[in-house]
Amino acid sequence: MNLKLDVNYLDSLIKTSQSAEKVEDPIKKTIQLGLQASCSIYVRSGKKNWSGSGFHIGNNIVITAGHVVPIDQTLTEILVSFDNKNFLPATFLISDPNIDSGAVKVERLPSNIPALQFANSDVLEVGDIIAVIGSPEGFHDTATVGRISNLHQSINDRSMPAWNDVIFVDADILEGSSGGMVIGTDNLVIGTIMGVTGQHADIGVGENSVCPSNKITNMLSKIV
Fold first, then answer.
1. Catalytic one among 177, 178, 209, 213?
2. Residue 152 catalytic?
3. How confident is the model at residue 175 (pLDDT cuts 50, 70, 90)?
4. Which range of residues forms the domain containing residue 88?
5. Which of 100, 121, 128, 209 is catalytic?
6. In the annotation, is 67 catalytic?
7. Do 163 and 77 have their domain in common?
8. Is 178 annotated as catalytic?
């Protein structure tokens, strides 16, 4: 059957869609702010090279995951990029394997990079809307959205203290996002991306785990 639609009818559909009121997403502006503060981190130790994610919190300090800037290796070069075009030298500040969080300091940070603040992770609630922002495999400006799915979760393994008292989120954690931010609709960072845990974590299936912000601020108090 060959159907022909009236041109005026089609035109009315287009005008209706253009004039329809757009519903503002509560996390959209938060993501746009977070992306400005998000960065890729490239690390070299001898002949080994790897990358991760991070974000600026002020005073040229960038937060990342502890396994991105490990203390058990001699880090010969750290580069940070907020646009994947300009690569800025950074120096190691601190890394704590007990919470899988660390920090570096950028030597010459552009003035247009915003500084994010941390939330009080003790007052978070299951169901809070969050965005996970990082640089998976070097792809900058990447965000996934979800909610806090559980709080104060532990695997009760003394050999892996970082995985005790962590936050679970249902937003996707993409490969290479370790150290990136998890941010709420109030524009406050609730924690940093650790990775996936569980019986099938080796294939990326499991609980998406986050280091709570209060652990990170306690770590930072040691370098003030």
1. 178
2. no
3. confident
4. 37-106
5. 100
6. yes
7. no
8. yes
